[in-house]
Design brief:
The protein is an alpha/beta fold and 343 residues long. The protein folds into 2 domains: 164 residues, Cobalamin-binding domain (Rossmann fold); 150 residues, Transcription Regulator spoIIAA (2-Layer Sandwich), CATH 3.30.750. Helices cover 36% and strands 18% of the residues. The chain is built from 14 helices and 14 strands. It has a 7-stranded mixed β-sheet, with helices on both faces. Strands 10-13-14 form a 3-stranded parallel β-sheet, covered by helices on one side. Helix 1 links the parallel strand 1 and strand 2. It is globular and about 55 Å long. The N and C termini lie far apart (52 Å). The structure holds cobalamin and iron/sulfur cluster.
């Protein structure tokens, strides 16, 4: 089956400080594509932000390009990965999919927004047929095989005027078996182009690697748990080292951003990761950075010098450092942003 995975882009009003510059490989899409390929399907990915960055933000050309991909690839399934600000664009893309590929194309939406509000998303976007809630690798593969059915765990869909909620699907514990991400479907030259936005303000060739899913905390503003659920699940250290080696040897990166929700969830495991990086001499070859919760960044926890000698570019104890505030409402205020950065 041909499956087109589309990553819609939020409107410019939601781009941090008015600029779209993300070079991240979207991990969810990359894992979904890998699962589909393992199951024998033909997957393609289409990242709207990438197309826009590459064509100088010519929206008309970007729209025409996606419509051409739909014409030419003729997917049986179009999967949309949806964040709340990208809902209007997701609806437009779902409409194009139906117009171009016919009513029989199955339009599926997953990601934080549909997971949180499945009925609302189906009501607001009548061209979307099915919602996948939570982590979607297993659900999407089963959906491709069986179509919408009340036994396909993790889906919500319409049946006439009613919504059918299949039983929820537990997020997988064994993360290694879901990887590696389907890098072969991405333009990795684009994603690893030297950029100051991957590792704070250093113009390095870098990529994002995920070592875990989920977080043990519940910060009030954060929707991370909506998809990942309670607690944290880890990739094995061997898997992470393989991913770093792959990024260094295959893509030639100089730096890694560990994109976990919070790498400090388990201090001993973070130190074990540092040791494994040193054992393979990777600390001589790459720089890396990551996000910790502020209260995990006490000077002695984990030992900053252990991290620094391990290739960490920036370690910021709470008394002098980089306070991460993940809220557009806050970042719109330059004075707060500036004081956060010099905190
Ligand atoms: C890494 C990250 C980023 C990175 C990289 C984003 C990227 N391109 O991948 C950066 C820093 C660039 C970023 C930017 C933004 N982000 Co962000 N980001 C995250 C973070 C921390 C992790 C996402 C991730 O990789 N998860 C791991 C993978 C495995 O999970 P996943 O992506 O959710 O995908 C799984 C499922 O959702 C599902 N799924 C996803 N899509 C689909 C599609 C289909 C068809 C199916 C079947 C299933 C499915 O299956 C996937 C595999 O299991 C989350 C927090 C979180 N923990 O979710 C916030 C989060 C997703 N971001 C958020 C926001 C708001 C943004 C921005 C809009 C912020 C802004 N104003 O700029 C931008 C938008 C970027 C864009 N789309 O262009 C919000 C979304 C909230 C919401 N209501 O939708 C979150 C939840 C954080 C929060 N504030 O709570 N982000
Ligand atoms: S520590 Fe980070 S990922 Fe965890 S709940 Fe807080 S903001 Fe979300």
């Amino acid at each position: 089956m041909n499956v087109l995975l589309v990553y819609p882009v939020p409107p410019p009003s939601h781009w941090p400080r008015g600029r779209m510059r993300s070079l991240w490989v979207p991990t969810g899409v990359a894992f979904l594509a890998a699962a589909l390929r393992r199951a024998g399907h033909t997957a393609r990915v289409h990242l709207r932000n990438e197309v826009l960055i590459k064509n100088g933000f010519d929206w008309k050309a970007a729209d025409a390009h996606l419509r051409e991909v739909l014409e030419e690839f003729r997917p049986q399934i179009v999967g949309l990965s949806v964040l709340t600000p990208a809902v209007p664009e997701s609806r437009t893309i779902a409409r194009w999919a139906k117009e171009i590929c016919g009513e029989r194309v199955l339009v599926v939406a997953g990601g934080p927004h549909p997971t949180a509000l499945p009925e609302r998303m189906l009501t607001e976007c009548p061209e979307i047929d099915v919602i996948v809630r939570g982590e979607g690798e297993e659900t999407l593969v089963e959906l491709a095989e069986r179509g919408p059915h009340p036994d396909v765990e993790g889906i919500v869909y319409r049946d006439g005027e009613q919504f059918v909620h299949a039983p929820p699907r537990a997020n997988p514990d064994d993360l290694d078996r879901l990887g590696p991400p389907a890098y072969e479907l991405f333009d990795m030259g684009f994603h690893t182009a030297p950029s100051p936005w991957m590792l704070r303000w250093m113009r390095l060739s870098a990529t994002n690697v995920r070592t875990s899913r989920g977080c043990p905390n519940r910060c009030r503003f954060c929707a991370g748990h909506v998809v990942a659920g309670l607690g944290v699940r880890f990739h094995s250290i061997d898997y992470v080292i393989d991913q770093i080696l792959n990024a260094v040897n295959r893509f030639g990166v100089e730096a890694i951003h560990f994109e976990d929700d919070t790498v400090g969830a388990d201090r001993d495991r973070l130190l074990a990761l540092c040791e494994a990086i040193s054992r393979r001499d990777l600390h001589q070859r790459i720089r890396w950075d990551c996000c910790l919760r502020v209260d995990q960044a006490e000077p002695e926890q984990p030992n900053p010098s252990a991290l620094r000698s391990n290739g960490v570019r920036e370690y910021s104890p709470p008394t002098r450092g980089d306070l991460s505030i993940d809220s557009p409402a806050v970042w719109q205020h330059d004075d707060i942003a500036a004081s956060a950065l010099s905190f």
